[in-house]
Design a protein that fits this description.
Length: 453
């Protein structure tokens, strides 16, 4: 059977998975590609690093990128190093040496997409990036090809496996936030800098890519309003459950009359709905199109083999010539796409969850509800269960231990107060909360989260 030579740059979690699929399941890739995808070279930074989960033939591993650049027989390269540099320079050099590139690096595309895609088109090369969004879920192909007869109205997704894993661990096994982060790193889900996972940046980069494909606009990802999961307290997970919800980091893009509204934020999702039941490193994306209606995708969004699955599929599409056609037709990130700033989500209607740490004395609730009333915010539910909140959780909001001590009859001086609103706006809750925070009876930061459907 004919052989087509391919290369890999970066043999970390994903790169090793790609090598395993190419080497161990060559018959499978050959069946789909009609030829053998031959792993000719895998370039790393540090040759001495152990890579026990992959058994590479002699002479495949190298620390010299030129061995790929100068080999005219290598037609497609999986570029699997993270971050912006040297990833950007390496991608440009690969394209300039005649290679088609496959990547999982969404940070690179969200930041330098226009430059890289323009250069690829000038050179008649392609960049494939199925693995850059939602790992093993084929969402890029689905939105850009399978749903192309639709006007997409909205996308709502759990797009970061690490933060979903952390929330699930805290919810299901009571793990601490820091233990859950460490476990996600150990399992290879987290970025080299996990703050991108937990602060919502990674999800915002993926959302910008999906919005580009779905709405035909270029969104500067840094302008997407985002909030991460680091402020989610175990007590919030428990209160949410009592109210019938789970907390998920949702990335939402919605077409509105004069633009696109986008945001990434921890959101209360009703228990029993598909997004609420997404656990561990799984991702999910709900897309609504005018012809197809609502479509739901679910699968592992991070981890070695799910991500490698998407990379190898892109390599196959590249070598058989399926991908370059779509790439040229779509003209991704070209000037054909208007640059839009996300609309301020302040006026988007929704319900909200709020938690305040307040003095446990008569009149406090009345002061707070009076302020909410002035902002036309109507209350759907109130919870105050001091016995269920640990001192550590309260002190996380900057209280001293003595303030949280039991002062007799099971009463503490400061207790959490949870309020769920009826429909209002982000702006009304933001303004009301900043006024409430100035009351003497309210301590520390208020937690405020959207409630989804
Ligand atoms: P990783 O485990 O940190 O691996 C990165 C690899 O890049 C390492 O093998 C490193 O080499 C190599 N590298 C760095 N600089 C290099 C250079 N100058 N020349 C050659 N090699 C270089 O990262 P990963 O988790 O595999 O992620 C790779 C990309 O996939 C990232 O963009 C990430 O966002 C994306 N992604 C990851 C996942 C996931 O679940 N992990 C899922 C989807 C997308 P050494 O080994 O020699 O240090
Ligand atoms: N760090 C990313 C995540 C990898 O956890 O989702 C997949 O892009």
């Amino acid at each position: 059977m004919e052989k087509t030579k391919v290369g890999i740059v970066g043999m970390g979690t994903v790169g090793r998975g790609v090598a395993r699929l190419l080497l161990n399941f060559g018959d499978r890739t050959a069946r789909h590609a009609g030829r053998i995808l031959w792993l000719e070279r895998a370039v790393v930074r540090d040759l001495s690093k152990p890579r026990p989960d992959v058994d590479l033939p002699d002479n495949v591993l190298s620390a010299d990128l030129d061995e790929i650049l100068e080999d005219q027989g290598i037609v497609a390269v999986a570029q699997l190093i993270g971050g912006l540099e040297p990833a950007r320079t390496i991608m440009l050099r690969l394209l300039e040496s005649g290679k088609n590139v496959v990547t999982a690096n969404k940070a690179l595309l969200a930041e330098h997409g226009p430059e890289l895609f323009d250069r690829a088109r000038e050179l008649g090369r392609s960049i494939a990036f199925e693995a850059a969004v939602a790992g093993g879920i084929p969402i890029v192909t689905n939105i850009s090809q399978c749903l192309s007869a639709n006007q997409i109205n909205s996308i709502a997704g759990i797009l970061n496996g690490t933060s979903n894993f952390i929330l699930s661990e805290m919810e299901e096994s009571g793990a601490s936030y820091s233990d859950a982060v460490a476990k996600a790193q150990e399992l290879g889900y987290a970025e080299a800098d996990p703050s991108m996972d937990v602060d919502g940046s990674d999800a915002a980069q993926k959302l910008a890519i999906l919005a580009h494909l779905a709405f035909g606009v270029r969104v500067p990802w840094r302008e997407i309003p985002l909030r991460g999961i680091s402020s989610v307290n175990p007590a919030d997970l428990r209160y949410a459950e009592k109210l019938g919800y789970r907390i998920r980091l949702l990335a939402v893009a919605q077409a509105v009359t004069d633009g696109v509204e986008l945001h990434v934020s921890p959101t209360l999702v009703p228990i029993g709905t598909p997004l609420a039941e997404v656990r561990g490193a799984y991702n999910a994306v709900r897309v609504h199109g005018d012809a197809v209606g609502s479509v739901f995708y679910h699968g592992l969004g991070a981890g070695q083999m799910p991500t490698a699955s998407a990379v190898v599929a892109d390599l196959i599409d590249t070598v058989v010539g399926r991908l370059p056609i779509t790439f040229r037709t779509l003209k991704l990130w070209s000037d054909d796409y208007a640059v839009v700033s996300p609309k301020d989500p302040g006026m988007i209607p929704g319900r909200f969850y709020m938690r305040f740490d307040v003095d446990d004395r008569p009149g406090v609730l009345a002061q707070i509800t009076a302020i909410l009333g002035r902002y036309q915010i109507s209350i759907a539910a109130v919870i105050q269960h001091p016995e269920e909140t640990t001192e550590k959780e309260l002190s996380a909001t900057a209280l001293t231990a003595s303030e949280t001590e039991d002062v007799g009859n099971g009463h503490k001086l400061i207790v959490p107060l949870v309020i769920m609103t009826h429909e209002t706006t982000e702006k009304s809750t933001r303004d009301a909360v900043s006024e409430i925070a100035r009351l003497d009876c309210v301590h520390g930061e208020c937690t405020r989260m959207r409630v989804g459907n």
